[in-house]
Amino acid sequence: MSDWNMQLLEQELAAHPFLKGMKPEHLKVLAGVSMRSEFTRDERIFREGESANRFYLIEQGKVALESGDEDGGVTTIQTIGAGDVLGWSWLFPPYYWHFDARALEPTKAIFLYGTRLREQCEADPALGYELMKRMAAIIITRLQATRKQLLAAKKS
Questions:
Q1: Backbone angles phi, psi at 71, to 5 degrees
Q2: What is the pLDDT of residue 142?
Q3: pTM: predicted TM-score of the whole model, two decimal places
Q4: DSSP the chain
Q5: How far is the C-alpha of 11 from the C-alpha of 31, rounded, in Å?
């Protein structure tokens, strides 16, 4: 990637709500493990149980987080869009997805390679701690969304 493209990617990362206020040296590390990605409507981004080695910063579009049951039914746990983060399982062992993710409309995102980023976090604990704090907030939001879905299902 050219220096110009790398700087542009760093600027895009800095502008994403998840990374607002991140130190410039940390943004440089993140840019080094990032690339742009796009998904078409109904494209499966990942499936529950698959290896979680990445995460995405959604820039445009909508993604459904879904969970299947034994009968083949699917429940949408949460719908996320521009400014949201898709995927936290890359950070926590055993590094497998806990939900399915499917693009509901054409979606643009920044792909971050989690395996390499975990290595960077080990080498730079300040970066690791900063990402852990930010991901913890995402996990809490997802758990609350799941709780609301369970309560709604119980009422029906």
A1: -85, 0
A2: 78
A3: 0.90
A4: --HHHHHHHHHHHHHSGGGTT--HHHHHHHHHTEEEEEE-TT-EEE-TTSB--EEEEEEESEEEEEEE-TTS-EEEEEEEETT-EE--GGGSTT-B-SSEEEESS-EEEEEEEHHHHHHHHHH-HHHHHHHHHHHHHHHHHHHHHHHHHHHHHHH-
A5: 9
Average pLDDT over all residues of the chain = 92
Degrees (nearest 5) of the Cα angle 112, 21, 59? 45
Query: In the sheet where 100-103 sits, what is the strand order?
Result: 44-46, 100-103, 62-68, 74-81
pLDDT one-digit tens code per residue, 14-32: 999 999 999 999 999 999 9
Residue 26 tokens, joined: 């940390």
Inter-CA distances, 87 with 19, 55, 65, Å? 15, 5, 10
pLDDT in tens, 91-143: 889 999 989 999 999 999 999 999 999 999 999 999 999 999 999 998 898 78
Tokens for 58? 């959604």
